[in-house]
Amino acid sequence: MTIVGRWAGPAVAVAVLGIVVRRIGTGPFVDGLEAVDGRALLAAMTIGFVTIACCAWRWTIVARGLGLRLSLPEAVAAYYRALFLNVTLPTGVAGDVHRGVSHGRDAHDVGRALRAVVWERGAGQAVQAVLAISVLLVLPSPVRSAMPFVAVAAAALVAGMVLVGRVRVGGADSRWMRARNAVVSDLRSGVLHRSALPAIVLASTVAVLGYALLFLVAARTTGVTAPISKLLPLAVLATLAMVLPSIAGWGPREGAAVWVFSAAGLGAAAGAATAVAYGVLVLAASLPGGVVLVVGWLPRRAAFQPKGAADA
Fold this sequence. Notes:
Elements: H1 3-24, H2 27-35, H3 38-65, H4 72-88, H5 94-107, H6 110-138, H7 147-166, H8 175-191, H9 197-221, H10 228-240, H11 252-263, H12 268-303, H13 307-311
């Protein structure tokens, strides 16, 4: 990856934040920070635990399907650590790379472990997309009129991917066929297997509901009193924006929240304040990951100390 490509995502995120601040000022950002109280933090920690546990369970299922051993307690600890790194480092994906590499070193197969992380995250995002389309088709939102076209386009994309996967180019030893066979094998054994798919869908559904519920908590914390039927589509749209390149989660989320809240008649300031409160709550929910990171770092540091220092 070139330097330009590496910094393009953060640059766009900074630009989005700059546009939002220029449009509505810094007041809503301060309001979002000040609105977070103890009850909201407790709710964030509780919802975060359930969500992370479901994501970790999904990871163990995919990893075992690919032939890797991964216990649920280990997966929960690693997922907490990954979330903490994702929300504190600029790229927003460093934590996922770290848990994949760490698991791969323990399992003596870094490549397969990284593939397990990719398929686990991909499966979660696929379920999130299906649920988002379903919610936005049923409930009123600023994008409801376009959702039938989005649903058709998504179905066409899936069909196209299936057709491309069936294309045979070159011989059995060609690069395309080796890559195709590896992808098909991973999907069949790690995601689409009949013993894995229902659990993956269930875990991903609960996780998506957790994201949406935390956004609703943030909205109520900042004083938004709109009914849940009106807020839920906005939460879906705002959390979908989090898959875009960002700075530790900041940027596209705030831009999307400002737009959807304004389009829904709730005000751009309310959208910005809710997005900021949501970011704070996500950070609070990830704090146990910082503890996991420190606890895992201390033994390594002690191992590299000189013998005299260790004795002292």
